[in-house]
Each structure stands twice: as C-alpha cells, then as structure tokens.
Amino acid sequence: MKKVWAFDLGASNGRLMLSKFSGDHLEIEEVHRFKNEPVFLTSHYYWDILKIFDEMKTGILKSVKQGHGDISSVAVDTWGVDFGLLTKQGEILGNPFSYRDSQTFRGINLVLQKLSANEWFGISGVEPAPINTICQLAAIQERNPELLEQANSLLLTPNLVSYLFSGVKANEFTISTTTSMLNIEQRTWDEELLDTFQIPKGIMAPVVEPGTVLGPTLESINQELNINPVPVIAGAGHDTACALAALPLKDDHSAFMSCGTWILLGVQVKEPVITKQSLEWGFTNEGTMDGDYRLLKNSMGLWLIQQCKKVWEKEGSGISYTEEAAFVKEAKPFQSFINPDLDVFLNPIDMVKKIQNVCQETHQSVPETKGEILRVILESLALKYRWVIERMEQLTGKRIHVINMGGGGIQNEWLCQFTANATQRQVVAGPIEVSSIGNSIGQLLALGEINNLAEARSLVASSFTTTTYEPENPGEWQQAYERFTDLIKQGRNHL
Ligand code: LRH
C-alpha cells in the first residue's frame, strides 16, 4: 500500500488529504481542513502565508498522531497566478498579494500599454485578464519597485510552500502557465516579455516539469514534526491541472469542469489553440500534468454564491446548504440573467447589491429574495457554460457529448442539473475532491506506481462514485439562452 500526502490549497479553504493506493484501488481521506481567505489591510488583499504554512504543519502533526506512517511523498497544489518573493537569504519578502486585489486592474492597463492583447496571447497562450501574474507584477513595479529590487526569487504559491518544506526553489510547469509569462512553445520564461516589464530575469526560479522530485523535507521540519524525511514532489502545482487529471473522462468528446470558487470548463488538447477567435472569446491555454494543454474558459463560479452568503451572514440571516437548495427550488425560474464574468463581480464590497445593480442597469427585473438571487446566479452560470461549450466545439471541431464535473461545487445539485439543462448534454458529476485526487495521481506517476493519465482516469472511475444528470426542459432553456446571449452582447468588458 503506497501512501502519499496531498495538500490542496483553495481560495476559500485548504486541506491535507491522505491517499492510499493498493495497486488497483485509490482511497482518499481528509486529515485536516482549514479556512483560507485573502486578508484586507493597508488597502490591499494578501494571503496569510504564515497561517497557511502553520495549518499545513498542523495537518502533518494530525496525520502522524493518527498513525499514518510510511508516507512515500508529499505534493502541493493551489489556485493559480499568485506568488511569493524571497530575499537572497531565502526569507519571505512581504505577504503574497491575492489576485482579488484591485491593483490588477491598474496592472492590466500597464501591460496593454506595452503589449497588445494579440502579442500577449500569442506568446503565452493565456487570456489577457487582470488576475494574471504579469498584471500584478506590472502594478508592483509601478507602485513599489523596491519590492522587486529586493527580491531574489519568485515562486508561485505551490512552489513557495514546497520550498518551505524542502528548501528547493523551482516553479512547476502547470502553475507557471497561469502567469502568462511563460512562452507556451518553449515551455520556459519568455525573456523578452520579462525585459519589457523590467522583471529581473534572475528572480524567476527555473521551470520544472510536473512530477519533479524536489528533495526530502528539511531536517528542521522533520525534527519539529517528528517525521522521517519525506520526498517533496512538484506534482502538478495548479489545482485545475490536478482536477483534469482526476476526472474520469471517457474520450475527447468529454469536457472537464472543475467547480469551486472558479469554474473552469475546457478540454484537453495536444496543441494550444491560439487563434483570433479563441482570443476574442476569452479562452486560455494552460499546461496539463502529462505534457498536453488545457483549452479552457475561466469562469467566476461559486464565488458569486459564496460572496452573497457572506453578505447574508453579516446581516445575521446566513443560510445553510439545505436552505440554499430549498430557496432555489421555490424561486421563479428565468427571471433575470447576469454575465457572471463581468469584472465588477471580481471583488465587490456587496455581491448581492452588485447583482441587483447589474440586473437593473440591464433593464431586467431586480431579484429581491435569497432564492431569486441564487437562481439568477445558478441559471446564468449554466447558460454561460452552454456559451463556452458551443465555442469550444467550434475551436476544436469536436462535439462535446458529456461534461465531467468535479470539485466541491458539485455538491450543489442545482448547478449540476442546470448545467445539463442549459447545455443539453449529459453531466457526470464526481468525484468531489478532484484536485486532491489529481495531486495524488501526480505523485503516483512520479513514483512510477501508475503509467499515464488514461490509467489514472480508469483508476478514478473504478475507485470513486459519480452521479449522472440527464438534460431536461430543452424548450424553456433554449428560450432562456436566447435572452442570455442577447444580454452578453451588451456591455462585454470581460467575456
Ligand atoms: C482555480 C484557479 C483557476 C485560476 C484561479 C486564480 O482555483 O486555479 O484556474 O487560475 O484559481
């Protein structure tokens, strides 16, 4: 029995999972879960990296206490684009910024002053979007250049924490593709691009392929946690790459959908799709664990619901998952729609008010009750996925028959059913812990326990259960889609 630790850090919580692989069965067990949200101070949003690392160590201590000895390796996956800076001595330089910080909007303007969207997309294959690492760096370079002057290394979040465990500085390929600073063809940092934005070349720790063994856990960590040295692997550092690896896709007519704070909907392709159309429709090309690419659309996802629930909690009228589902059921369908990917939804102070404002501005009826608000969000998300699927089919020339949904978001059964209805495609939902499972698969590949992703996906199919949702009510959803597409033709600041 091989046992590995998978740290999956998300933008609302993080967890340590223990994976057990018997040779033909994979099992995953949650050891520790903790809250992780950006912290607002001095006018910026930061990640509390010290708390994150401390929680990770708590996770290991818990695992040891539960008697999980003989761990073969450990790997970390996280959300994309964010990074930490290190001094020459290897100490952390300031708190890492969150991509929700509004500096990214200044950043994207600065980047576009020097690089056209066409050039940007052509080099990196990544959709020009404010959240990209390059925008943060451009904003920091303008506002606080001393920070970059003092920096000796830049490590993306999974690699930053892997460094804290192993002492080895390297940026793994899949997470590096989210920066839009990587030359997608050469699979390494684009030096010209770094020059254009005066990012000191030396700070970009080298790019390593997924599955690279960085080295054993540091002696100081072993002593503190009372463990034997454990190999730290740079598996696939990006949570979405992990999710794709662990979704039981049957063939290339299956799309993947990783559902969490963000919802990433895409297909695995051999070559990046870098065309006028893919740029115009806001698609992006990121790396997969096995050397291919993920053609996908980054969509706002359950963030919209999480933020509304936060507002209601603050008002003292928070709701549970069960109430959420009941409210959606009661609310009138197809009242109003929003384009979930408008920049205004990236980090508003009050998401409920923002959604109401957008409905009003677009001359639709304004949702008032919790059920109405939730229904606007869920129906709009589902309709947006039809929009994405249809465009993806045009870009690849392949019809999508099935959508494999995974991640915490599939616990929302309305989201799964609405996605099936809006797209009129079968939805196969599961597993929930898809990023942690993918993280473990990355380690098992590196350890030579499994041979390729096809094998990994059949292992997932035989080890975990899924739920199938068949499309319903085609006529009503067709009419809704026509209204939705008319709406998103207006005010398209971000598709
Ligand atoms: C989802 C995700 C997504 C984006 C975003 C910043 O967790 O990784 O793919 O990169 O975070």
What fraction, in percent, of the residue positions are helical? 40-55%
Radius of gyration: 22 Å
> What is the CATH C level class of the largest domain, in words?
Alpha Beta
Distance between the termini: 46 Å
Give unreliable regions as ranges.
none
Rounded mean pLDDT is 96
Tally of distinct domains: 2
The biggest beta sheet is recorded as: 7 strands, mixed
Pfam families: FGGY_C, FGGY_N
Keywords: ATP-binding, Disulfide bond, Kinase, Nucleotide-binding, Rhamnose metabolism, Transferase
GO molecular function: ATP binding; glycerol kinase activity; rhamnulokinase activity
Domain Carbohydrate kinase FGGY N-terminal: 6-244
Précis, in short:
The chain is an alpha/beta fold. It is 41% helix and 21% strand.
Structural overview:
The model has no long low-confidence stretch (mean pLDDT 96). It contains 19 helices and 21 strands. Helices cover 41% and strands 21% of the residues. The chain has a seven-stranded mixed sheet, sandwiched between helices. The chain has a six-stranded mixed sheet with strand order 3-2-1-6-14-13. The chain is an alpha/beta fold. The radius of gyration is 22 Å and the shape is globular. The chain binds 6-deoxy-beta-L-fructofuranose (LRH). Keywords: ATP-binding, Disulfide bond, Kinase, Nucleotide-binding, Rhamnose metabolism, Transferase. It comes from Salinibacillus kushneri. InterPro entries: ATPase_NBD, FGGY_C, FGGY_N, Rhamnulokinase.
